[in-house]
Amino acid sequence: MGNPVAVKGDERRSAMVLDLNIKQKGLMGENSVVTDEYGVVRYVVRGNVGIMSSTFRIFAGEDDSAPEVAVVQRRQSGLAPKLTITIDGREATSIVAKTTFFTKRYLMEGVGLEAKGDWLNSDLTVTRDGETVARARQRFLSAYDREVSVLDESVATIVVALLVAIGAVDNDETAIMAAAAL
Question: InterPro entries this protein is in (predicted)?
Answer without folding.
Answer: LOR (IPR007612), Tubby-like_C (IPR025659)
